[in-house]
Amino acid sequence: MPQTSPIGREGKPPLPRRHEADLAGLATFILDGRGRVSAWPVTAAGQFGRAAAEVTGRHVCDVLMTGPGQRDLVRHALAEAAAGRIWNATVAGGLLGDGRFAMRWEPLPEPAGHVLVIAQPLWPLPTPGWLSEATARIGSTLDLTMTAAELADAAVPGFADGAVIYAAERLLVADEPASPKPGQGTAVRRLAARVNDQPPALTNVLLRTGEVIVLGPDSNGYRAMATAEPVVTGQLDRESAERLARYRASLAGIPPYGGTGEITTSYNSFLTMPLIARGTVVGCAVFSRAPASPAFSPDDITLAGELASRAAVGIDNARLYYREQRAALALQRGLLPGQPEVPGGLEVAHCYLPVGGNVVGGDWYDIVPQSGGRAALIVGDAMGHGPEAAAVMGQLRTVAHTLADLELPPEQILSKLDHTATTMTTAPFATCVYTTIDPAGGSVVATLAGHLPPVLALPGGDTRLLELPPGLPLGLGSGSFQATEFALAPGETLALYTDGLVESRTQPIDHGMAALREALAATLAQPGITLNAACQTVMELMSKHGEDDITLVLTRIR
Q1: DSSP per-residue string spanning 311-334
Q2: Are 122 and 92 in contact (CB under 8 A)?
Q3: What is the tally of structural domains in the chain?
Q4: Residue-wise pLDDT tens digits, 377-392
Q5: CB neighbour list of residue 317: distance below 8 Å, 6 or more residues apart
Q6: pLDDT tens across 452-479, in order?
Q7: Peptide bond into 409 cis (omega under 30)
Q8: pTM
Q9: Domain around 521
Q10: Residue 286 maps to a domain
């Protein structure tokens, strides 16, 4: 077994103090295509000390990024976003002062041409020189693999001849502390690898990014993660050497990889650093040096500690960011209906688009099969946007689905929904259109609760706005709703939708309704167009200027 040297115990130099940024310090704001501030949340106000009323509508270079060259930087970032690309940069100076911020510029699908800017404060840099330059390159984004690659690129060749970065797999997938248990291995995911004077593509053949491996109790990586202290050795641990030998054997005789074996056996000094963020071991970094380079010294361990500390916080921030993304996607999957069961006599198509960068919002739609081949089609809109509106929407949709399954009359269902809304602690308001369609009878019964009326598209290209009592929105406690029955002949298409499809600050609702009827008539008149394709086409035509969540449901009798 190779001799190891844990550093930081028995009078040896301790690890350097770790500088840790807080993910809660993230600030976001939204710019229009010209760089003017269109949204300035409380996170931006708190981070930069400027109130929303003070900056909204002004150019970002006049209120925040006023330093030399920053106008050109903003111009380039906006151009990248306009081309549909995400752009990252580290920014300092101007009204940002001495602070440094990693800024991520993301194009937003709606409103068209707008850009979401995510600003992450970076901890102050240490002493000038190589370490300052190296650490400045780490953690500039909220991307897990990019942060690890930045650490590897900073270390090679300035600090080491090779570097491999691992993250604790259990922390990534289960969000559980990753400290290994005594005598047991620990699973890690390889995030990045660099070898001096070797193309990254070739390195990735032997040290593949994203591969999950198990570090055994005798490996240097396991020891570093288990003790939370660096480990220095004069040779690669046996387990890692055997793993690399298996990789090389699988490539033997395959050009151009058949001659790459020597690159992993020519090192004689290895330093394995634990990656620790907020008191949790998030992974480890393995640095290696060839015989032509000096062996790792205590001073090198101090430098590596600063690099590892910076990378650990960046990796953990990226992990937390993706955890929130996963939670949002899980919320979306839980709140939006799955593949609906459509009765054989009906054809139904639906489209849903939450506003801005949200994955869920206040809109909902549902299809509930009923006896006799009938079906309830429901479209609703809870006031607001994002997770708060989605939480209200989820409760109302669940109640509506349950009541529809009981096949209560439409006016009774809206009355009970209204009562439910009045008892919710968030005191929500929502609109809803509830319809029951009977393919055999060629009829539809519809009821409104403050919602826009359905549109009926006729085969000849004409459209008709169904005249229904409007009712009051859910949550006002009116409890009184009126149902109206209409004929629905084969070939006619019924359109249910939310107001986000037809209304915006730049378009009066009357103009939007006229545009919807025109889009339905023109699209459905196309020879051979399917209902799904028609729904997508109408949504694309109508959502260009959307400022709210948008839902569109089309149905017709087969």
Answers
A1: HHHHHHHHHHHHHHHHHHHHHHHH
A2: no
A3: 1
A4: 999 988 876 666 777 7
A5: 21, 23, 120, 139, 142, 147
A6: 999 999 988 899 999 999 999 998 887 7
A7: no
A8: 0.47
A9: 338-557
A10: no
